[in-house]
UniProtKB/TrEMBL annotation:
Protein name (Swiss-Prot/TrEMBL): Flagellar motor protein MotA
Source organism (scientific name): Pseudoduganella rivuli
Pfam families xrefs: MotA_ExbB
Protein localization: Cell membrane; Membrane
Transmembrane feature ranges: 20-40, 79-98, 104-128
Main subcellular localisation: membrane
Topological relation to the membrane, as annotated: Multi-pass membrane protein
Residue ranges occupied by any MotA/TolQ/ExbB proton channel domain in the UniProt entry: 49-144
Annotated family: Belongs to the exbB/tolQ family.
UniProt keyword Ribonucleoprotein present: no
Keywords attached to this entry: Cell membrane, Cell projection, Cilium, Flagellum, Membrane, Protein transport, Transmembrane, Transmembrane helix, Transport
Length: 150
């Protein structure tokens, strides 16, 4: 009896995190799409502008910021997806114990959808980060080679 009273608040508090986690996952997917667009513009226009400036410090600063964004995008959404996967499974399993498989089915659907959203956004961030890292390394190498040649 005391366990139910002392941990009921914990279950209620954790359940409140599901909606913000799902909204954060949707936002992360939108950010991944926006970052993909920014990366395309960066590849076809932005990098050549940076190369024309020949300022290695500026390139390093911009690269650091953009790579940090991509790194965060590749790490945080999968964690949010896991969180939004686990949260509905507790009530779903409890409903199964009470003979309500429909509630379990609903919880499992939400859980799997959250997992997919987290992975999609994380994969987007990973691909963007890897491409950007290569682009900026090539740009910095060419700028340093030009600087040594001069």
């Amino acid at each position: 009896m005391t366990e139910t009273l002392s941990f009921g608040w914990l279950h209620d508090g954790v359940s409140l995190l599901l909606t913000p986690a799902l909204f954060a996952l949707l936002a992360a997917c939108a950010i991944a799409i926006a970052e993909a667009g920014i990366a395309c513009g960066e590849r076809f226009y932005g990098l050549s502008r940076l190369a024309a400036n020949r300022d290695i410090g500026q390139v390093q600063a911009i690269a650091r910021r953009r790579l940090e964004r991509a790194d965060l995008l590749s790490r945080i959404p999968p964690m949010l997806g896991l969180m939004a996967t686990i949260i509905p499974l507790g009530p779903g399993l409890a409903a199964l114990g009470q003979g309500d498989p429909a509630k379990l089915a609903s919880a499992v659907t939400v859980a799997f959808d959250a997992t997919v959203l987290g992975l999609v956004a994380g994969i987007g961030g990973l691909v963007i980060g890897k491409l950007r890292r290569r682009w900026y390394e090539e740009l910095l190498e060419s700028l340093e080679a030009e600087e040594l040649a001069a």
